[in-house]
Structure formats: C-alpha cells, structure tokens
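Section 5.1 Outputs to date
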Amino acid sequence: MLDAFSRAVVSADASTSCIGSNKISELREYLAAANRRLDAVNAIASNASCMVSDAIAGIICENQGLIQAGGNCYPNRRMAACLRDGEIILRYVTYALLAGDASVLDDRCLNGLKETYAALGVPSTSAVRAVQIMKAQATAHIQDSPSEALAGAKLRKMGTTVAEDRCASLVAEASSYFDRVISALS
C-alpha cells in the first residue's frame, strides 16, 4: 500500500526526475484535507460493528431464506462468517480511504473474492446488497448525518461542523471504493 507521498516519490524515482510542482500541489491538497480524511475514517471505524451488523440484518430482512435451514446465514457459524467478511471489507475500504489509494483494497481484499464466494455458494446478490447498505451508512457518517431516529441512544456523531460540500470529495472517494467492491462481486 502506498500513500500519496510514497506514490509521488516512487513515480519520480522511476522516471529519474524530481517531484514536479504539480505533484507538490496535489500533496498540499492531500494534507489540507488530512483532518477531514481522519474524521471520516474515525467515523466509519467507530461505527464499524454496527454498520456491518445492520447491513447483514438488512439483507436478512430482505431475504428471509438466508436464515432458513440451508441458507447462507444458517447456522450460527455461517452468520459469524458473514459478519466477519463484512468487517474485513469495511476495514479495507477504510484503509483505502485513509491512504487515498485503492491498491490495498484490490490486492488484499478483492483479489479472488468473487471466486471464493462462488466456491462457497454465497449468492453475490446478497453480498452486493450488504456492501450497498454499508456504503449508504458510510456516506451518512462521513457527512456526519446519521439517522437519529434509527440510531437512538447508540448514535455517535463526530461533532464536526464541516459543511456537507466540503466532505463531498471524501464521500465520492469512499463511494468509489465501495463501488470497486460491488464491481468485484458482480
């Protein structure tokens, strides 16, 4: 996994040149957004367990057959595997968002994921739907607009006063990482 600085150095080294002014301005923009990026990652990480369990509960509500005998969330060990896989996917999306680079997501999470799920008989539609639910939740947390009506006493807000448009680039970036997962599963 390369962060923005490592990518700039490796790229310049490969071409045996100095880091250009355009790369330096990109790095300045990356640093300017660093606190917002950290807030976004913290918001997702702080709510990861709830996000994953809500996503799995969501797909079960939409497809009751998953918890029936022979379903992919029956018995308990299969349910635990679904929760584990959801947390792994969310963790790697969060790593990618922190680094501003999808290579760790591609290399360590998505490489062979579809084939593994196919071999285990996991329906890709259910996995895709769970990722879509996590994507919606992550977007809400990055924008610091989780639903108070649904969260109740478990609501965690990061306390940022960042305007929604200032987070739009982070929302778009995080969405692109979730879309990579969805694409890999489809």
